[in-house]
Design brief:
Order of helices and strands: HHHHHH
Length: 102
């Protein structure tokens, strides 16, 4: 009995030694317990710069004529809604104020 347990102990030690040597030679991470680790995720390169390069600069924020035209469209739409009586209510006359006065 003791010789077989000694033999299995030596075999396990040899396998462990070979696994450690293989990990150091090939640059692998040794995980004998099999616990989850974030090594696989952390060894990947970051892709943020690549994703940013896919999209051109935002023209709407940089060009003042585009911003001015959008603002003018918004104001003209608001004026049209006010003429039809569909614009935003004056301060203190909205839905919440009507509930408070009931």
């Amino acid at each position: 009995m003791s010789s077989s347990s000694l033999r299995t102990m030596l075999a396990q030690a040899a396998v462990r030694g070979v696994a450690e040597a293989r990990a150091t030679i090939f640059g692998h991470v040794l995980n004998p317990t099999g616990q989850r680790s974030a090594h696989k995720i952390l060894r990947k390169s970051f892709i943020g710069e690549k994703v940013v390069s896919w999209y051109p600069n935002d023209i709407q924020r940089e060009d003042p004529t585009v911003v001015a035209r959008k603002e003018q469209e918004r104001l003209s739409k608001l004026e049209m809604l006010k003429r039809r009586g569909k614009g935003p209510p004056k301060k203190g006359h909205g839905k919440r104020a009507a509930k408070r006065n009931k």
